[in-house]
Specification:
The complex is a heterodimer of chains A (90) and B (321). Chain A is α+β, with helices and mostly antiparallel strands and 90 residues long. Helix content of chain A is 41%, strand content 31%. Chain B has helices at residues 48-60, 84-92, 138-154, 186-193, 258-267, 280-297, 309-320, and strands at 10-12, 24-26, 31-36, 39-45, 72-79, 96-99, 102-105, 110-115, 120-126, 161-171, 174-179, 199-202, 205-209, 219-221, 236-247, 252-255, 300-305. Classes of the chains: A alpha+beta (90), B alpha+beta (321).
């Protein structure tokens, strides 16, 4: 089995935009995560079509940030979201 | 002759099992019809021992009795195997599992069968499940189940009101909602209310209704829920604001940000699952949607309070202005 570097939102969650945040609840009803504006933006880009390169490019387009800094932030956020089980690699 | 006697006798077609193949005849003695928000539910007990408990429940719920028969009928059949303490212990880690129109519990203290096309639920369980005198709120859970099942039938599963674990106080024609888990202080708020600071709507559970038309806000309504200060009167009032309770050494108030308000309020909604519901995800979605709607339009505060009633109601009163 090959694993691409594209990410997709997990299926076992429900989420809702609350103000600028995205609030994610695992569908066991127990674990919750609140993503701030930037983390929410990265989360929304995890649509199964993008990997770290495309997400970094989107961050650079939207924010005044260097490619190196954007890549580091994207990597860290994706790592945290993956650890939390709310996105996964496809 | 009391007003209720005018109902006479009527029949209910039970679930078509071997045991219940013939239609049962029920008398008013063993039936109560309850109004819960926009729906009606009937409770029926087969055994004389249970009727006596039903009589007591009838007195406690007298503000919610109705002549209208229920969208949902719950028939209760009692067993007497466990003490109240044993029952609470058995239910503390209980889970239900379903197979077709039958449900069973891992604790084996309650099981039942249902027919949603007829709005009929038969529950066989410990008599103490409907005993209003024991701790545990089992009766409230039963009423909640009947309510959400009736909403499934009448409103296609989208309840116009949700049941929320909260204490409601009526002040100056507005309802103030105090929410929090068990031990957060809902009953303490009710006690500190006394008679001069407002009217207790209920200190345990309330119905929070969505606006019915443009311009109307959310409303708070009492229901047949038992608390330490049971509401025997049917009351409805506009929801002014929500206080998420925090016991402390002083009285203070702060506006809660949207995400925190949404998450904490959602946790106080009594799970809107109808009997036989297997899809937990759609239940969570209902709760999420409702919590978002409420906390988007109603101000939510964290209320830190101690036992000083004067400072509590002064603080609340200033906010209400």
């Amino acid at each position: 089995m090959t694993i691409s570097n594209r990410m997709v939102q997990a299926e076992n969650i429900i989420w809702r935009r609350i103000g600028d945040d995205i609030v994610i609840i695992k569908d066991d009803g127990l674990a919750t995560h609140v993503l701030n504006k930037t983390a929410a933006y990265i989360w929304e880009l995890c649509d199964g079509k993008r990997g770290i390169d495309e997400i970094t490019a989107s961050l650079c387009e939207r924010y005044d940030v260097s490619p190196e800094e954007a890549r580091a932030d994207a990597r860290e956020t994706i790592e945290n979201l993956t650890k939390a089980g709310i996105i996964k690699y496809i | 002759m009391s007003g209720n006697d005018a109902y006479g006798r009527f029949t209910v077609a039970p679930v078509n099992t071997q045991e219940d193949a013939r239609p049962a005849v029920w008398t008013m003695k063993n039936v109560i019809n309850l109004r819960i928000g926009n729906v009606c539910c009937s409770l029926i007990c087969r055994d004389a021992e249970d009727w006596r408990k039903l009589e007591k429940i009838k007195r406690l719920y007298h503000g919610f009795l109705t002549q209208e028969s229920g969208t949902v009928t719950v028939e209760l059949a009692g067993t007497d195997r466990l003490s109240p303490e044993e029952l609470n212990a058995a239910l503390s880690n209980n889970e239900f599992f379903h197979q077709e129109n039958v449900f069973r519990s891992t604790s084996q203290v309650v099981d039942g069968q249902y027919d949603l096309t007829r709005g009929y639920i038969k529950i066989t369980g410990e008599r103490n499940l409907i005993n209003p005198d024991i701790e545990g709120n089992h009766l409230n859970m039963l009423i909640s189940l009947a309510y959400y099942t009736a909403c499934k039938m009448k409103f296609n599963g989208r309840p116009p009101a949700m049941i929320v674990h909260s204490c409601g106080i009526l002040r100056s024609g507005q309802a103030l909602l105090f929410t929090g888990p068990s031990e957060a202080g809902k009953t303490t708020i009710a006690r500190l209310c006394g008679k001069k600071n407002g009217e207790i709507i209920n200190d345990e559970m309330l119905l929070i209704s969505r606006p019915r038309y443009d311009g109307e806000g959310f409303t708070v309504e009492s229901g047949p829920f038992l608390g330490k200060y049971p509401s025997r009167r049917s009351l409805k009032a506009p929801l002014r604001c929500i206080f998420q309770l925090k016991q402390g050494s002083k009285t203070g108030i702060r506006r809660v940000d949207r995400s925190e308000a949404y998450l904490k309020f959602m946790r106080q909604i009594i799970t809107p699952a109808y009997v036989g519901q297997k899809d937990k995800r759609s239940v969570l979605l209902l709760m999420s949607e409702f919590s978002d709607e409420v906390t988007r339009t109603v101000p939510v505060y964290e209320l830190e309070f101690n036992l000083d009633a004067n400072s509590l109601w002064r603080t609340v009163g200033e906010l209400q202005k």
